[in-house]
Write a structure and sequence with these properties.
CATH class of the domain at 25-95: Mainly Alpha
Strand content: 25-35%
Largest sheet: 2 strands, antiparallel
Radius of gyration: 15 Å
Number of strands: 4
Mean pLDDT: 79
Helix content: 40-55%
Distance between the termini: 31 Å
Strand order of the largest sheet: 1-2
CATH architecture of the domain at 25-95: Orthogonal Bundle
Number of helices: 4
Shape: globular
Amino acid sequence: MIFVDIKRNAGQHGILVRECVSVKITGAQIRAARGFLKWSVSKLAKQADVGISTIQKIEDVDGDPTITSALQWRSDARNEALAKIVETLEKAGITFMPANSQGVGLRGKVD
């Protein structure tokens, strides 16, 4: 499972408050974020420095895209790739939303 920490600012009476929330990222969110940005799989792969097939396998899973393997290096490699992908998408303006009763989601900045 990969979690992303989201920092939120909430101003009350002019006071800046920072809150850190862990968000579980799903394959469906990665797929939706790429669609929002109008990026191809190859563009995301190049921007995140991961393989095209890695992104395709992650996006094939609607839920948790991490893997559990007897070979620790496989699990570590998948988690590293997910972290790179999420970081790349966030730098491009995507914000991953925590799960609530309506499900998971994302927001994107419109240029």
